[in-house]
Amino acid sequence: MAKVVLDAVVFVRALLNPRSPWGRLVFDHADQYRLVVSPTIVAEIVGVLNRPRLARRFSSRTGEDVAAVRAILASAQWVVLDAAPRISRDPKDDIYPATAAAAGAAFLVSEDRDLLDLRSYEGVAIVDAGTFLRVLAETGPNGV
């Protein structure tokens, strides 16, 4: 099963609309890939989930969905990095490809143009959610 890093935006969009491509990726297809996170990535995701302004926009199922996201994060493979090298135009994004590369991940899924413009980093394909869903559909229920 392929290792995958998901950008925090993927989780936020999944919670805003669980039936969206991001929601399907997080909630319906999580058993088809091995999620990889770092403490910095989890802190960003949790920080975003705890923003009151954003929490008000989540769907009515948010309590269940937030609990599901927390369970998904808890079961992920964790990678601890000393520091992320400069990789993208936005240094705040560097933790994502650095984590993916350190874990030997096959994919980094993001909607961030600074990351998507890289296309790949140290053998990690950087794709959007729609592209990754197509990869999962092509590989079938056993995942990538």
Structural summary, described in words:
The protein is an alpha/beta fold. It has a single domain (3-139), classed as Rossmann fold. It is 48% helix and 13% strand. It has eight helices and six strands. It has helices at 8-16, 21-28, 39-49, 52-55, 62-74, 95-103, 113-116, 129-139, and strands spanning 3-6, 34-37, 77-78, 107-109, 120-121, 124-127. It has a six-stranded mixed sheet, with helices on both faces. Helix 1 packs across helix 2, helix 1 (8-16) packs parallel to helix 3 (39-49) and helix 2 packs across helix 8. The protein is globular and about 35 Å long. The relative contact order is 0.22. The mean pLDDT is 91.
In short:
This protein has 144 residues and is α/β, with parallel strands linked by helices. The protein has 8 helices and 6 strands.
Total count of strands: 6
Q: How would the global form be characterised? A: globular
Radius of gyration: 14 Å
Helix content, binned percent = 40-55%
* Assigned CATH class: Alpha Beta
The major beta sheet can be summarized as:
6 strands, mixed
Number of helices: 8
Estimate the mean pLDDT confidence. Answer: 91
Low-confidence stretches: none
CATH superfamily: 5'-nuclease
Strand content: 5-15%
CATH topology: Rossmann fold
CATH architecture: 3-Layer(aba) Sandwich
Give the strand order of the largest sheet, numbering strands 1, 2, ... along the chain. Answer: 3-2-1-4-6-5
Structure class: alpha/beta
Distance between termini?
A: 5 Å
Query: How many domains, as an integer?
Result: 1
The succession of helices and strands, N to C, reads: EHHEHHHEHEHEEH
